[in-house]
Every structure is written in C-alpha cells, then in structure tokens.
C-alpha cells in the first residue's frame, strides 16, 4: 500500500482515479489546485504525486518546481494534454519523473505509479531543477502520442540540459534531425548556432576542411584561411549526420575533439578549442560497422553517452491521425492550398503500408498529393500505385438504398484501385471482358492516375 496524492481541478477525473487506486489498496487524497496540493502534500506525506498540468490559477507546470523543492524525494507524475510536446519536455526538465497524457489510459497510469514507487524505494535521486524554457518551437514541433514517441519526448526533456553527447539512431526519415534540433532548442544554448554536417556528402579531404577549417596555403586553392563547422558551432551545437560514413582518419580526429575538446585545422599547427555540443545521427547499425572494423569502438562509446533510438513509422501508425494534419498544415501553407480531408480508402492504404521511408516518405507523398489535388480531399488516385496496390480492399459499405448501378460503380473502382489499374487482373476479378471494362471506366468517368503501370493500358 502506498500513499498517492492527486492534484487535478477536474473533480470527476480525480474521483475515478481515487476509486481505482483505492481498489488496488492504496491510500489516496485529492486536491483541486496547486496551493491546496502543496498543503496536502505537507500533511499527507504521499509516496507519489500525480499533478495535472492544466489547472486554473497556478498551473501544474508552474507549481512543479515548488513540489520538487519541498518534496525532493517524492516522484511527480504529470498529466498533460495529449498532443502538447512542449509542455511535456518542459515538465521533464522541471523535474517531473514521468507523464501521462489525457485521456488517461489506466494501465499506463498504473505502470507509471509502479515505476515511481519503485524508484522512490530504491532511493533514486530526483531530477535536477532547471530554469524555465521560453523558446518556442520555431517550426520544429514534433507530434506523436504513441508509446515510442512519448519515450522520445521524455528522453529529450531528460537530457537536453545535461552536457552529454547524444547519438540518435533510426532508419531514414524517422525524425533524427528533428530530435537533434529539439534537444538544441530546449538545451542550455538555444540562442547559439545549430550547425549540421553531412558526413556522407563530401570526399574526405573536403569534409576535413569543412569540419575543422583550413589555413591559408594548406592545399592548392586555399587562398585564405577558413573556419570550419566546429568553429561556427561555438557556443551552440554541431550535428554530425550520417556519422557512420566517416573515414578512419576523420574518426581519429573526431575522437580527439570528443575527448580533449580540441582539434587541428587542415594545415594548422596550433590546436583550437571547441565548446560545441556534439550530437550525431546514424541510420546504419554502428555495432556492425565496428565488427567489420569500419568504425572505432572508442569513438562509438564517446558519441553515444546517450542513445535515442527513433521508431520506424510502421511501429507507431497510431500517430498517423496526428502526423497527417500536422504535415498537411505545413504543406497547405507552403502551397497556398486547403486540402483538409483524406478519403477512407487512403487512410486504409496508409495503415496497410509498411513505410520504408518513414515520416519523410509520408511527407513527400502528401506533398505530391496536395500539389495534384483538385479539391480538398486526398483520394487514392493521388497516391503512388504501389501504395494503393498493397491496400486491402476496403470493406464494402453497401447501403440498402443503393441501386445496382451504384454498387457496380463502387465495386469496379475498388477493384481498379486494388489492382493498381492492371486491367487484366481487374477483368479476372470482375469476370468481364476488356471491352466491357473499358466501357465501364468511360461510363463512370474514372481516370487512371498518371503513374499507373503502362503495361496493358488499352485506354481509348
Ligand atoms: N514526430 C514528428 N512530427 C512531425 N514531423 C516529423 C516528425 N518526425 C519527422 N518529421 C518530419 O519528417 C521529415 C523527416 O525528418 P528528419 O529529417 O528529422 O528525419 P531523419 O531521420 O533525419 O531523416 P534522414 O535519415 O532522411 O536524414 C522532416 O520534414 C520532419 O519535419
Ligand atoms: Mg537526417
């Protein structure tokens, strides 16, 4: 049995939680604002505090530092709005031990409480308190409400202020750079520069001078000395993208930077100092590169003091309903369009697809669809054929009021989409001849998407 204090202005929600925890044998008290919550914490001495972020008067976020100062050993679980990444990160930075999003999933809440109680028993230290974060997301907002994305947000909040080297791993398009930018944004030097280096883009000699700079006369064409990215990232962050591609020579130089915080420019004799925070990203398995002798193990351990692993999109498809409006909003602004709806068939195709290119692929695909979209709805004909083809047939919703002709129209279209406009296969499924299929297509005014396979196209 443990003592749990719930601080939430929503009385109904408090009561539900109270009943739930009492049934599990805990001792539960409630308070409905921050001031009473603090007083109650004093008298009740809870093992765990559950604190709602949104409350009238002092918000949970504002009150959190008071709770952590007065009860440093008591874990605090925050309740946040379901899609508010910024307050989540801020809460973790201000010392929250965990967070749960609304609407509350009771299993998740139980797990969080259990973790918190365990941590307290093992006498784990509370997180350090930090100054409030005023930076806005400046277009780098991340969305997601799935377990894997919440773990990512939590990690960002926990490590952003600590001077640790971070390695972000994950397949291409999963959001690695976006995470790096968010860590920078909520870290100790948000006003400082964020300088990205693509380690795969340049040949070794150019990359070396790009990273470390060069002195005048260091090589043919070096007419003046140039600062490198490490110099530009002073007082800020340097982001080494595709770090697995670095040559052994540059790996050795980078190891020196990470260990000693100093480097030599190309042709330089005097070591230069850097205070830039180093983050790196990689979409290949560095451990395999180490086994093959292509990546230094000592450098690997220096770079991945903290490792954030980005989930593949197919492992958090439940975020699609958040990701799509978010990305569409941006695309609509850029294209001066107002595409706001996605047809049911398209959503089904999205859920069935395995997204090898992850969120970037989703973004590109929406961009193309919006560009080609004549109205406000994205329909299957605007999607690449391979995506539509993978989709299972949408389950038919044949209303009892439908005429045979309407059913015929809907079914022919479904089959065409399913086969990616392969007329041979469509005829097989429908049990019709090609001329008849052609007549049906013309009669119902179906239009073949431009990128459909050209084989077997007998349009006309
Ligand atoms: N959680 C997210 N919420 C909103 N947008 C996202 C999210 N994750 C990724 N994006 C968007 O998807 C695109 C790809 O993200 P990003 O460039 O960070 O991925 P990456 O892992 O670095 O990809 P690559 O391996 O191709 O370099 C960007 O436009 C980014 O804004
Ligand atoms: Mg990237």
**Which outline best applies?**
flat
Bound molecules: adenosine-5'-triphosphate, magnesium ion
- The averaged pLDDT comes out at 86
The top-level CATH class of the largest domain is: Alpha Beta
Distinct helical segment count: 19
Number of domains: 4
Name the poorly predicted regions: 123-138, 452-460
How many strands?
14
In whole angstroms, the N-to-C terminal distance is 76 Å
Give a brief outline of the structure.
By secondary structure, the chain is of the alpha/beta class.
Descriptive notes:
- This protein is of the alpha/beta class and about 450 residues long.
- Helix 3 (about 60-70) links the parallel strand 3 and strand 4.
- Mean pLDDT is about 85; it is low at about 125-140 and about 450-460.
- Helix 6 runs parallel beside helix 7 (about 175-185).
- It has helices at about 10-25, 35-45, 60-70, 85-95, 105-120, 145-160, 175-185, 205-210, 230, 250-260, 285-290, 295-305, 320-335, 345-350, 360-370, 385-390, 405-420, 425-430, 435-445; strands at about 5, 25-30, 50, 75-80, 100, 165-170, 195-200, 235-240, 260-265, 270-275, 275-280, 305-310, 340, 375-380.
- It contains 19 helices and 14 strands.
- The relative contact order is 0.07.
- The protein has a 5-stranded parallel sheet with strand order 2-1-3-4-5, sandwiched between helices. Strands 7-8-11-6-12 form a 5-stranded parallel sheet. It has a two-stranded antiparallel sheet with strand order 9-10.
- The protein has 4 domains: about 5-120, Rossmann fold (3-Layer(aba) Sandwich), CATH 3.40.50.2300; about 145-310, Rossmann fold (3-Layer(aba) Sandwich); about 315-390, Orthogonal Bundle (Helicase, Ruva Protein, domain 3); about 395-460, Homeodomain-like (Arc Repressor Mutant, subunit A, Orthogonal Bundle).
